[in-house]
Amino acid sequence: MDRPELLLIEPPLSVPEALIFIDSSLSCQLHYPIHSSAWWSVLRQVGWRGSIYYLAWDRSPYSLLEYLAQMGPESIGYWQRYKSRAKRVGKSRLPLLISDLPEQKFSLFSLSLGARVAYYTMQDWLKTSACLNNALFLAGAVLRGSSKDWEGAARSLQGRLINVYNVEDWVLKRFCQMLDWERSPCGIKPIKLTHDHIYNVNATPLMKTAKHEPAYYLPVLQTLVEREIWKL
């Protein structure tokens, strides 16, 4: 895909706030966001009343981050390419796309490599002239330590950056080994920065799996809302 697009999945029910759903091109084969339809119904079930947009930012033939992890060192080139594209989309494209939407208040909901897009969008949020409420990272493939400007990412938030991680995530652990990451990504450990707007959630006991696929995070949403971690 040459040009990222924001697709309106569902209009608002009663709240003038938009949720931008940012999937990972390496999480599942993407020809159309129908594969994510389970998320729309769950988001409504937990109480989301605003509109839902889907960021279609890559339609790569490479289907699974898990598949790349199994390839070993041969996949590093693919990883570097997708990582760079996620940064470009987050910094250069998504803020401008958001500026064209009618809503004035937004939340970001990101999965896996999509969390990189969200991270860089938060860094350049001033380009949007809109309000950023919450940002949710699930299985985020972003380093969690001082090599990233987490304070800058959280600067524009009115609500929280909710980082949901699974210490057993086999795929993210495998990429740590392959890439010689001295620090781990936020998808397997908490973001290190202590900040009023950053909230880490250990989902390992809820998920009971080492699998990376986003579907395993679906049950976590209810817990986030019930515990008022994510305030809708």
Protein traits:
7-stranded mixed β-sheet, 34% helix, single chain, 232 residues, alpha/beta
Notes on the structure:
- With 232 residues, the protein is of the alpha/beta class.
Secondary-structure topology with pairs:
Blueprint (H helix, E strand, L loop, with lengths): L4 E6 L7 E5 L14 H9 L5 E6 L8 H7 L4 H24 L5 E7 L2 H10 L7 E8 L11 H5 L6 E5 L4 H10 L18 E5 L1 H4 L10 H9 L6
Parallel strand pairs: 2-3, 2-4, 4-5, 5-6, 6-7
Antiparallel strand pairs: 1-3
Helix pairs in contact: 2-6, 3-4
Biggest beta sheet attributes? 7 strands, mixed
Alpha plus pi helix count: 8
Give the structural class: alpha/beta
Strands of the biggest beta sheet: in what spatial order? 1-3-2-4-5-6-7
Extended strand count: 7
Q: What's the rounded overall pLDDT mean?
A: 86
Query: Would you identify the regions where 5 or more consecutive residues have pLDDT less than 50?
Result: 27-34
Mass-distribution shape: globular
Helix percentage range: 25-40%
Q: How far from one another are the termini?
A: 32 Å
Oligomer kind:
single chain
What proportion strand?
15-25%
Q: Supply Rg.
A: 16 Å
Order of helices and strands: EEHEHHEHEHEHEHH
Short structural summary:
By secondary structure, this protein is α/β, with parallel strands linked by helices.
